[in-house]
Amino acid sequence: MYGRADRLLHHVALGLRPLLDATFDLERARWGKAVRDVPVERPVFVTGLARAGTSILTRILHESGGFACASYRDLPFPLAPNSWARLGGKRRVEARERGHGDGLMHDLDSPEAIEEVFWRLREGARYRRADGLAPVAPQQESITAFRDYVRLVLHAHGGGRYLSKNNNNALRLAALIEAFPDAVLVHPFRDPLQQALSLRAQHVRACTLAGEDPFRRRFMTWLGHHEFGADQRPFLFDGAPGPDEDRGHVDYWLKLWISVHEALLFPPHEVHGRQLFVDYDALCANPRRYAPRLGARIGAPVALETLASPPVRAADVSPALLARAAETHVCLTDRFDAALG
């Protein structure tokens, strides 16, 4: 998607922190008064562990209308969406399959986890560690600035409800609710073994692609995407896999699955009532039943007839980890059934 000139521009705009900081300051100064009264009502944050249908669900919601979301069109100046929209014009790029190799197409207007650039700038020194991403509560001034960022995105993309797909938001759920008390936190999940196998497969694929094109690794790091690949960093919840554990073995990813979902199941009190757990497997198996109920809970139409059901695969896995994952999965499905059953 990016030629040599575009890569250089992205390196400067995203890789140099002082410039990134300056673009946000200038954007707030230029558009602050214009967006001060922009309403932010029931924003939707799709967040959790990768490979659970987060991208597909976000796109379904976005396509329903009424939502505004950061997209690749905001790059390479994602913290200045209004200013860059005037400078960058209506660029066009032909839709192509994303690097995951899963058949999901994207273009400049596809909703994406661009907002993590904001958190990397404001809080990166506190939560981004060499061994992983830590659940550190953001500072108050960062939460205030995030409210401004959301209003800037809404203004740039035509208003509506704010929609976010950002797995890293699992680290800061309480801060999201502090910023927007009526927010909806959507947590898709899958069968633990199947999701772990998918994560491992994507990790291998991403490492190969990064080896072929070093810019890909830098680009993913600038965007704060550490789910898999050459700069993979796990969420450092209790029970997370250690830096010396084998990412080539499914046990690593199953251990990560357990730690993330146990953390999501037992969040701070103020978060619990805003969560909506979505069983992606059940949604694939019976979309006509669950899509209307999901739409009612989110407050937006979910136009969904069919979804591709993930393949069933087996693997050499620790029986103890698998048993614990199964117990956690039961708790997740209980929450799903209570909300949408």
Count of helix runs? 14
Q: What overall form do the CA principal axes indicate? A: globular
- The total of beta strands comes to 9
What share of residues is helical? 40-55%
Structural class: alpha/beta
Radius of gyration: 19 Å
Strand content: 5-15%
Cα end-to-end separation: 42 Å
- Spatially, the strands of the biggest sheet line up as 2-7-1-8-9
Mean pLDDT: 89
Q: Which spans have pLDDT < 50 for at least 5 consecutive residues?
A: 97-103
SSE string: HHEHEHEEHEEHEHEHHHHEHHH
Biggest sheet architecture? 5 strands, parallel
Structure description:
With 341 residues, the protein is α/β, with parallel strands linked by helices. The protein has 14 helices and nine strands. The chain has a five-stranded parallel beta sheet with strand order 2-7-1-8-9, with helices on both faces. A two-stranded antiparallel sheet has the order 3-4. Strands 5-6 form a two-stranded antiparallel ribbon. Strand 3 and strand 4 (105-106) form a beta hairpin. Helix 2 crosses helix 6 (140-156), helix 6 crosses helix 7 (173-179) and helix 8 (192-212) crosses helix 9.
